[in-house]
Amino acid sequence: MAFKIIVCAKQVPDTNEIKIDPVKKTLIREGVPSILNHDDANALEEALKIKDKHPDTHITVVTMGPPQAKDMLIECLAMGADEAVLASDRALGGSDTWATSNALAAAIGKIGAFDLIFAGRQAIDGDTAQVGPQIAEKLDLPQVTYVQEFEIADDLKSITVKRALEDGYEVIKVKTPCMLTAIKELNEPRYMTVGGIYDACAKEIAVWGAADLGVDTEKAVGLDASPTKVYRSFTPAPKGKGEMLEGDTEKEVVDKLLVGLKTKHVI
Ligand SMILES: Cc1cc2nc3c(=O)[nH]c(=O)nc-3n(C[C@H](O)[C@H](O)[C@H](O)COP(=O)(O)OP(=O)(O)OC[C@H]3O[C@@H](n4cnc5c(N)ncnc54)[C@H](O)[C@@H]3O)c2cc1C
Fold it and tell me: How far is the CA of 243 from the centre of ligand 1 (A)?
């Protein structure tokens, strides 16, 4: 039987280009280039490496997002994924991480049986690193986050991973099915091939709305159902020019710093 992998991938704005509307205080998404979230490319690459070794592997990429997220899914198909699903509906808009993971867990439930779910550690726009673990909790799956090295047993029934910690790492063996979240150290994502791009354009991408997912649009997804409320978004004011303090000894520099801080009534 085919080994089935689901990869959660998010289309994100290119971070160097992020701007906040000074009046509405929301993210300006119009006209901003979008990319496949970096950690998700690592998750997909690791899934593709399993497929390289076990050609019977089937990879489905799932995303929740606006219609233009299809472009990112085409990129994933061109890299080598077999199938792609877009969960897209106005009712899903404004979802926080809890509501996003409700929608994605419902989409995964509709995709059907799986052996492994691979997500990225975090999305470069929301940056919370909550969605992967929340999906695992909602699907009652064992999970390992911050995966930096990955090895799957020949019988595909267990996976040994090296999990990054701030000051070291853990080696964990986990049985499939499970949820893993990838970090950039895991691998170098491959480029799309010309043949892959050609094949990807011919593939149909399933688009599922809230009704297809069977989610409660009042209690489970969307802005109103989201427990997180954003009170204010703003671009931090640019900092003033820094001042370098110099002196012959550390004490001299510290004394200058103290005088400066006292003059400005900081201390
Ligand atoms: C009140 C509120 C309103 C919001 N409104 C909007 C809005 O209108 N539009 C908007 O774009 N964002 C909105 N957001 C942000 C949105 O909640 C997050 O972008 C989203 O829930 C994912 O969280 P994250 O980006 O922190 O992902 P993380 O938890 O950092 O992502 C971890 C991993 O989960 C997976 N993942 C995360 N999101 C998705 C996804 N959508 N599809 C597939 N896989 C995914 C990826 O593998 C990713 O690497 C809103 C947030 C709040 C609190």
Answer: 39
pLDDT in tens, 218-261: 999 999 999 998 887 777 777 788 889 999 999 999 999 999 99
Cβ-based burial of 172 (10 A; exposed 0-12, middle 13-18, buried ≥19): middle
Quick one: DSSP state of residue 82?
A: S
Say if ligand 1 is within 6 A of residue 226 CB.
yes
Pick the residue whose CA is nearest to atom 27 on ligand 1. 123
Q: Which of 53, 102, 72, 67 lies closest to 220 in space, CA to CA?
A: 102
Domains of the chain (ranges, CATH numbers):
4-213 (3.40.50.620)
d(CA 221, CA 95): 6
Q: How far apart (Å, rounded) are the C-alpha atoms in residues 232 and 93?
A: 18
Paired tokens of 255 = 């004394």
Question: pTM of whole model > 0.70?
Answer: yes
Q: Give the β-pairing of 116-120 and 34-36.
A: unpaired
CA of 149 to the centre of ligand 1 (A): 25
SS3 label, residue 244: coil
